């Protein structure tokens, strides 16, 4: 793998410019509040990023709180239910550069998507489609001639990630 600066540069060229962190589920009340679904962990972390991009337009969160098991928020300029309703179903995104850089041997899931996956003997298994959080460890969904589920266990299953080459090296039996 290249040094850190070159790897970061290669990653920034390949990475998407925006990332989806959640979506607007609907309106809440009559004063423009919105029900928010967050894909961050913990769910409140969605409010750590500003501004939000909704349909490419920047929005500032005025206020937010937990509501039951979910979240509600009010965005600047949305003061009534009818104004807020137009945002229902829309994705909440941020600019990629709003994320802090990952530490060494840490990766954002979005950056792993699309990497070619090869065994240590050079057998291609496909490419990373997405990841699944299982609790015990994350799981790579690799799609090639068939779909494979590989545990994302650094040093055991996942041996290296090379963003310059667009490749992930794994210790995995291609017949499994």
Characterize the structure shown:
The protein has 176 residues and is mainly beta. The protein has three helices and 13 strands. The protein folds into two domains: 13-98, Elongation Factor Tu (Ef-tu), domain 3, CATH 2.40.30; 109-170, PRC-barrel domain (SH3 type barrels). The strands form three sheets. A six-stranded mixed sheet has the order 11-10-9-8-13-12. The protein has a five-stranded antiparallel sheet with strand order 5-6-2-1-7. It has a two-stranded antiparallel sheet with strand order 3-4. The longest helix is centred in the N-terminal third of the chain and has 11 residues, at 4-14.
Main sheet: strand order: 11-10-9-8-13-12
Helix content: 10-25%
User: What is the CATH superfamily label of the largest domain?
Assistant: RimM
Please compute the radius of gyration using only Cα atoms.
19 Å
User: How many domains make up the 3D coordinates?
Assistant: 2
Q: How far is it from the N-terminal to the C-terminal residue, by CA?
A: 27 Å
Question: What is the gist of this entry?
Answer:
The chain is mainly β.
Q: What are the SSEs and their pairings?
A:
Blueprint (H helix, E strand, L loop, with lengths): L3 H11 L3 E11 L4 E6 L13 E3 L2 E3 L1 E7 L2 E6 L5 H5 L5 E5 L13 H4 L3 E4 L4 E10 L4 E6 L3 E5 L6 E5 L4 E4 L6
Parallel strand pairs: 8-13
Antiparallel strand pairs: 1-2, 1-7, 2-6, 3-4, 5-6, 8-9, 9-10, 10-11, 12-13
């Amino acid at each position: 793998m290249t040094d850190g600066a070159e790897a970061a540069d290669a990653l920034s060229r390949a990475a998407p410019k925006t990332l989806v962190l959640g979506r607007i589920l609907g309106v809440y009340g009559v004063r423009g509040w919105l029900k928010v679904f967050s894909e961050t962990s913990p769910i409140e972390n969605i409010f750590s990023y500003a501004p939000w991009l909704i349909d490419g337009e920047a929005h500032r969160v005025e206020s937010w709180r937990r509501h039951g098991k979910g979240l509600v928020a009010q965005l600047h300029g949305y003061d009534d239910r009818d104004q807020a309703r137009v945002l229902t179903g829309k994705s909440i995104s941020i600019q990629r550069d709003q994320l802090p850089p990952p530490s060494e041997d840490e990766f954002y899931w979005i950056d792993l998507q699309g990497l070619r996956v090869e065994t240590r003997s050079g057998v291609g298994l496909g490419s990373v489609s997405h990841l699944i959080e299982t609790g015990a460890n994350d799981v790579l969904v690799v799609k090639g001639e068939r779909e494979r589920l590989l545990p994302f266990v650094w040093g055991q299953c996942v041996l290296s990630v090379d963003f310059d080459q667009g490749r992930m090296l794994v210790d995995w039996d291609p017949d499994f």
